[in-house]
């Protein structure tokens, strides 16, 4: 408590001179979260046999996974839950159940319709009872409050038929970060059962929108991948747009009109302070990080013509990557950092192009008849998501040569795809005809599992960050 | 001078009526009293009522709907109708050399956000360059793009989009 107060006071002292220099639209800093420590947890033996990776997703959607409440060794008070660690154990199981259900691959059954295992059963499940319920997979876990207030969360996945432990892991988290342990456990289960990389323990930066269509208030906001831990970072007096989390989550790039012109700022999450990406009188838009976080791409209009530039994240000399009378904008690095996909209307309409990271070898890749906008390279490297404009606006994916296009969504105006850290799911924003109201949606690569993310107000410009350490 | 403006306005409104569907069905502002009065006012500062010089109202009263020009989808060229409007603006700014102004570039909602920011920038600069070619000092002209973030027409139809693809000159007060 004292610490928070001190932090707040320091921030206020630092912010004072900055506020005197110019307009400000920043809220109080939210600060960075505490670390999550991975620990060994008890079990009866080493890892069980791997069940293989998913090739046909339909086979997995019927898998019954039982996720009863996590047990506790001793019901103790914790700041994480007003009713103590036993109630917290139930909440953890609920979060895991919602994660696995919302992403379409599994049919989990949660703690509210299952018996609660006792603490000793976490490492020695009553397999007979669970197979009788038709569960093929069983998730067990526990929550233990340590004397220093931190929480130990253990997570176990069992194959009920084989009566075998598939995987287990444990984490030590601060009470405020208890949901992260639930996300880590979800990731452990997801990765083990699908052979895919994890993605639940990640965050999303986006733009929160309120107000009528001609006087829309647009604020920078962040949330966990499931919509929890929502925070507004700006106050709304200046329009904020197009955020991007840095790969280490310490900063957010975004566009703000705080000085009256569209300019990119680097917002430092820990200190709550921000700086211009480049000291320049020209408008700067469309900020992007390189995969290693060392460089920033931005687009700058000079005398009306927009081109793409790169600048070191620590500041310094900008390098111009495109030099063309058309609009060149955006840019998304391949995961190895060697190539950039971007959009340009140099051919007469918005199309997607690929160039080397130094700007050489610029080559158009989209030739499907419509327009190609907001390309985003998959974190797996093999696909590019984009806004496909052909009448309506849809989210689509193509390979890195522009071939094998698959349209994933069918909204009136779906735009600005962003990839989950594992490259399996895409978020985007959907705008309603006439009202202009917008929301964040997500869809998996099959196009089958589409859902709207819960946000406190309307939302746009989602930017999914990487898996958290 | 006033007759000239009136002639241009007449021409401009004639072109508006004749314009094809791509053009914005402009919402007509209140009738400009300063120019429709047959009596010339060589000394506007003695006018007892009416908008003050240096205000947006005064500018709008003088040039009418010519404060704003409109563009085709994804285009930023100044066509003959836009040229007539910008000529009316240039005459106004020649008459009031103390006035500075911002050209706000906009796009309709049927474009992606970042592209539209770049497009609005391009449109505002096209208007600026035209005014500079007519003798307006570039130092008096600021430019800002709002992309698709600030529509004036709220529907999702061709008519509304045509009104939103615009570059609007706004007096800096």
UniProtKB/TrEMBL annotation, chain A:
InterPro entries, alphabetized: 6-blade_b-propeller_TolB-like, Tol-Pal_TolB, TolB_N, WD40
Localization in the cell: Periplasm
Pfam families linked to this entry: PD40, TolB_N
A cellular-component GO term for this protein: periplasmic space
Segments forming domain TolB N-terminal: 65-166
The organism's place on the tree of life at top rank: Bacteria
SUPFAM superfamilies membership: TolB, N-terminal domain, Tricorn protease N-terminal domain
Span list, region Disordered: 447-469
GO BP annotation list: cell division; protein import
Function field: Part of the Tol-Pal system, which plays a role in outer membrane invagination during cell division and is important for maintaining outer membrane integrity.
Assembly with partners or alone: The Tol-Pal system is composed of five core proteins: the inner membrane proteins TolA, TolQ and TolR, the periplasmic protein TolB and the outer membrane protein Pal. They form a network linking the inner and outer membranes and the peptidoglycan layer.
Official protein name in the record: Tol-Pal system protein TolB
Species name: Erythrobacter sanguineus
Phylogenetic placement of the source organism: Bacteria, Pseudomonadati, Pseudomonadota, Alphaproteobacteria, Sphingomonadales
Automatic annotation (TrEMBL), chain B:
Bilayer disposition of the protein: Lipid-anchor
UniProt entry keywords in alphabetical sequence: Cell cycle, Cell division, Cell outer membrane, Lipoprotein, Membrane, Palmitate, Signal
Biased composition (Pro residues): 27-45
PROSITE patterns linked: OMPA_1, OMPA_2, PROKAR_LIPOPROTEIN
Spans through the membrane: none
Domain OmpA-like: 58-173
Disordered: annotated span: 24-56
Subcellular location: Cell outer membrane
InterPro entries to which the protein is assigned, alphabetical: Bact_OuterMem_StrucFunc, OMP_bac, OmpA-like, OMPA-like_CS, OmpA-like_sf, Pal, Pal_lipo_C
Extent of the signal sequence: 1-18
Entry annotated with the keyword Transit peptide: no
Annotated Gene Ontology cellular component terms: cell outer membrane
Keyword Ligase: no
Chief location of this protein within or outside the cell: membrane
Single Gene Ontology BP annotation: cell division
Top-rank taxon, per record: Bacteria
Subunit structure: The Tol-Pal system is composed of five core proteins: the inner membrane proteins TolA, TolQ and TolR, the periplasmic protein TolB and the outer membrane protein Pal. They form a network linking the inner and outer membranes and the peptidoglycan layer.
PANTHER family named among the record's database cross-references: LIPOPROTEIN YIAD-RELATED, STATOR ELEMENT OF FLAGELLAR MOTOR COMPLEX
Function: Part of the Tol-Pal system, which plays a role in outer membrane invagination during cell division and is important for maintaining outer membrane integrity.
Family: Belongs to the Pal lipoprotein family.
Descriptive protein name: Peptidoglycan-associated lipoprotein
Organism, scientific name: Erythrobacter sanguineus
Upper lineage: Bacteria, Pseudomonadati, Pseudomonadota, Alphaproteobacteria, Sphingomonadales
């Amino acid at each position: 408590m004292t610490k928070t107060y001190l932090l707040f006071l320091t921030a206020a002292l630092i912010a004072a001179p900055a506020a005197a220099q110019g307009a400000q639209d920043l809220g109080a800093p939210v600060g960075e979260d505490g670390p999550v420590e991975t620990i060994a947890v008890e079990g009866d033996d080493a890892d069980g046999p791997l069940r293989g990776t998913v090739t046909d997703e339909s086979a997995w959607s019927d898998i019954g996974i039982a996720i009863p409440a996590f047990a506790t060794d001793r019901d103790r008070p914790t700041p994480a839950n007003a009713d103590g660690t036993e109630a917290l154990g139930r909440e953890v199981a609920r979060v895991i159940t919602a994660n696995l259900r919302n992403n379409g691959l599994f049919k989990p059954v949660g703690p509210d319709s299952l018996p609660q295992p006792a603490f000793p059963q976490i490492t020695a499940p009553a397999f007979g009872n669970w197979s009788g319920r038709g569960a093929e997979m069983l998730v067990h876990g526990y929550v233990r409050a340590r004397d220093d207030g931190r929480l130990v969360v253990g997570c176990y996945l069992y194959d009920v038929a084989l009566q075998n432990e598939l995987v287990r892991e444990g984490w030590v988290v601060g009470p405020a970060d208890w949901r992260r342990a639930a996300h880590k456990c979800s990731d452990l289960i997801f990765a083990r059962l699908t052979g895919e990389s994890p993605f639940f323990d990640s965050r999303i930066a986006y733009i929160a929108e309120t107000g009528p269509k001609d006087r829309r208030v647009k604020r920078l906001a962040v949330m966990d991948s499931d919509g929890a831990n929502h925070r507004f970072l700006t106050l709304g007096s200046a329009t904020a747009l197009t955020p991007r989390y840095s790969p280490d989550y310490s900063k957010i790039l975004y566009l703000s009109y705080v000085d009256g012109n569209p300019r990119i700022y680097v917002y430092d999450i820990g200190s709550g302070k921000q700086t211009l990406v480049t000291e320049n009188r020209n408008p700067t838009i469309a900020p992007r990080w390189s995969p290693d976080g060392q460089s920033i791409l931005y687009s700058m209009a000079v005398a009306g013509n927009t081109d793409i530039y790169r600048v070191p994240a620590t500041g310094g000399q900008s390098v111009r990557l495109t030099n063309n009378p058309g609009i060149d904008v955006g840019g998304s690095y391949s995961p190895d950092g060697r190539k950039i996909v971007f959009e340009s209307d140099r051919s007469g309409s918005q199309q997607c192009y690929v160039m080397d990271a130094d700007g050489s070898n610029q080559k158009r890749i989209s030739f499907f008849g419509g327009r190609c906008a907001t390309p985003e390279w998959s974190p797996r490297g093999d696909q590019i998501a984009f806004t496909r404009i052909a009448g309506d606006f849809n989210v689509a994916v193509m390979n890195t040569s522009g071939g094998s296009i698959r349209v994933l969504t069918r909204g009136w105006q779906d735009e600005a795809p962003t990839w989950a850290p594992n490259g399996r799911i895409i978020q985007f924003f959907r705008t309603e005809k006439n009202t202009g109201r917008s929301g964040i949606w997500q869809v998996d690569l099959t196009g089958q599992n589409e859902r709207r993310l819960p946000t406190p107000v309307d939302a746009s410009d989602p930017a999914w960050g990487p898996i958290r350490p | 001078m006033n007759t000239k403006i009136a002639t241009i306005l007449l021409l401009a409104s004639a072109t508006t009526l004749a314009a094809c569907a791509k053009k914005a069905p402009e919402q007509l502002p209140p009738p400009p009293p300063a120019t429709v009065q047959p009596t010339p006012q060589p000394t506007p500062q003695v006018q007892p009522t009416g908008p003050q010089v240096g205000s947006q109202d005064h500018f709008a009263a003088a040039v009418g709907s010519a404060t704003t020009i409109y563009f085709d989808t994804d285009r930023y060229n100044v066509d003959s109708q836009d040229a007539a409007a910008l000529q009316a603006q240039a005459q106004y700014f020649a008459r009031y050399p103390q006035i500075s102004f911002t050209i706000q570039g906009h796009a309709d909602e049927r474009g992606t956000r970042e592209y539209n920011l770049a497009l609005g920038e391009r449109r505002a600069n096209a208007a600026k360059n035209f005014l500079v070619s007519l003798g307006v000092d570039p130092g008096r002209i600021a430019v800002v793009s709002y992309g698709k973030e600030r529509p004036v027409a709220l529907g999702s139809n061709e008519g509304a989009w045509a009104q939103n693809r615009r570059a609007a000159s706004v007096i800096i007060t």
